[in-house]
Specification:
The structure is a single chain. The chain is an all-alpha fold and 545 residues long. The chain is built from 22 helices and no strands. The chain starts with 5 loop residues before the first helix and ends in a 16-residue tail after the last helix.
Length: 545
């Protein structure tokens, strides 16, 4: 069931009627209201492919049962620890024994679920590479990457004693299968939405109004930006790039940066809005990423839930391992110079190199998460290496006005200029990475980068634009698509500026009905206008992950 379909709209409306209507008919049903969401979520998943629901049930049950077992192990340990007469050494031995038991359960559950994910998502790709093609492809269960990461975050947190295990399997199953976020996240944490999903609630017009506004905003991004730009980008990058000037390729990559952001964040807006209709507020997944001042800052703003998952369960556990800590200490010890500058440099390296290695590992995994193809691996490594180098070389290329002390001393104009320069620098670095992300053929990717840097040829842009886009498409469609997309991009830019400055446009609109109605009318109009230039909407990019 496509997110952008009449079938999905009818499904949501029927589920809303049941969710809020059944408790009105019988008040005793209210405490079971969450079961309507569970039934709807499982039904939604079954409508995609009833066979794939077995994978969802397997993941949810093994993770729930494993966390429950870990919880019981921890309870037994606490009881035995309180036994009278235990020496300090005996307590240490007891802790080690129960930690080992808990880790065995944890690793068994993780191995099973990530093994299933790896087999379904990567095995055929690797087999094709080894055989040179010919292997049958597997159809991925809907949202398997997202629900696997979401479920495993729960057992990892229970193992870390952040909270106790959920005793009701059905409630945990709802957390894993909640239908709005199945398609493309965000990757939720149990404390964030677990209780929300099972709360008793009545229909709230204010929350629903905010949800409708989000849905319309997401539809505008998807239809009037992403779907307008996608065919033009494909026209250039899916064919041969020989002879295309770097200026044209750079222009197309800039369009791709807008397309990808509009597609992914637009999808997140839609599902967040749908979730608000049910009174459930999902975690934010974007925070004005193109206003980031460094690549690391960009990844704290883009796909926030995946970045947080990698930070909490890969980066810190790896960076804080004994070998990494020892490496940092050795680097600091090796810099035991008399000169203060050299000593400070050694301290800096000792602190950042373990983190740099951890960052490269994290982004290698992020690349693999997107797909096993080589271009995704290179894209992940590019991001990891750039972040690692920027941390290592921070004292060398820091732009004046970037530290808090310099900011305090600088006049406002210098601070603004410094900030703009860092945003522009980060935007360029991110867009270089998009070459690896969008161009699936690695050789074509390198050729495109070489053309961009060494054969930019701005004088050839106009002729190339006509050759690549206007020979196979009529001018009305090409220019109309670009014009509509740019109008909407400017609207998104203005809203992003307001949010970056701490304003909340949606709250203003909720307080002013006339402004709300006008904004809704404009978004509907722009979305409707997109059908002048596109016959149908494409699927969401991140649904493939």
């Amino acid at each position: 069931m496509e997110l952008l379909s009449l079938k999905y709209l009818l499904f949501v409306l029927i589920l809303l009627i049941l969710y809020y209507g059944l408790p009105l008919l019988r008040s005793s049903v209210r405490k079971y209201q969450w079961m309507v969401l569970l039934a709807g979520s499982l039904g939604y998943y079954a409508m995609q492919d009833v066979r794939h629901i077995l994978f969802l049930l397997l993941t949810s049950f093994t993770v729930w049962a494993g966390a429950d077992r870990i919880g019981k192990i921890q309870e037994v340990y606490k009881t035995e620890k309180k036994a009278a007469g235990l020496t300090r050494e005996e307590k240490k031995a007891l802790k080690k024994l129960y930690d080992t038991k808990s880790r065995r359960v944890l690793f068994g559950v993780l191995f099973l679920n990530f093994g299933i994910l790896a087999y379904l998502k990567y095995w055929v790709v690797l087999l094709n590479a080894l055989r040179g093609g010919g292997a049958a492809s597997l159809i991925l269960p809907l949202g398997i990457s997202f629900y696997t990461f979401q479920a495993t975050s729960y057992i990892l947190d229970v193992h870390g004693s952040k909270y106790g295990p959920e005793k009701n399997y059905a409630k945990f199953l709802l957390f894993v299968s909640y239908f709005p976020q199945l398609l493309q996240g965000p990757i939720g944490r149990y404390p964030q939405i677990g209780n929300q999903l099972t709360e008793q609630r009545a229909f709230d017009r204010k929350t629903a109004g905010e949800g409708v506004l989000l849905i319309l905003y997401g539809l505008m991004k998807k239809y009037a930006v992403a779907d307008m730009l996608a065919p033009l980008i494909a026209e250039v990058l899916d064919g041969p790039v020989d002879g295309i000037p770097g200026s044209m390729l750079a222009f197309i990559i800039l369009l791709y940066s807008a397309q990808q952001y509009a597609d992914f964040s637009g999808g997140i807006d839609i599902i967040s809005g749908v979730s608000l209709l049910f009174g459930v507020r999902l975690a934010p997944n974007f925070r004005q990423p193109y206003f980031a001042t460094s690549l690391g800052d960009f990844w704290r703003r883009w796909h926030i839930s995946l970045g947080a998952w990698m930070r909490d369960y890969v980066f810190y556990p790896f960076a804080l391992t004994k070998p990494m800590q020892e490496l940092g200490k050795k680097i600091i010890a090796a810099g035991n110079y008399e000169e203060k500058a050299k000593k400070e440099r050694a301290k800096h390296l000792g602190r950042v190199i373990p983190a740099a290695i951890a960052n490269i590992l994290v982004f290698f995994l992020v690349g693999i998460w997107h797909g096993a193809e080589l271009h995704y691996v290179l894209w992940g490594l590019y991001n990891g290496i750039v972040i690692a180098l920027s941390d290592i070389l921070e004292p060398v290329w820091k732009i004046p006005g970037s530290t808090s002390a310099e900011k305090g001393a600088a006049v406002n104009t210098e601070r603004v200029l410094s900030h703009v320069l860092r945003v522009f620098r980060t935007f360029l670095i991110v867009n270089i990475g998009w070459y690896f992300d969008r161009i699936t053929d690695v050789h074509k990717c390198w050729d495109s980068l070489k053309a961009t840097f060494f054969r930019f040829a701005p004088y050839a842009f106009s002729a190339s634009f006509r050759q690549e886009l206007l020979t196979t498409r009529d001018a009305f469609t090409v220019y109309g698509s670009l014009a509509l997309a740019m109008i909407c991009v400017m609207a998104v830019f203005v809203i992003s500026v307001l949010r970056e400055r701490g304003k909340e446009p949606e709250l203003y609109l909720m307080k002013h009905p006339a402004a709300y109605a006008f904004s809704a009318f404009v978004m509907v109009t722009l979305t409707t206008a997109s059908f002048l230039f596109a016959e149908s909407a494409g699927g969401f990019m991140y649904a493939n992950f």
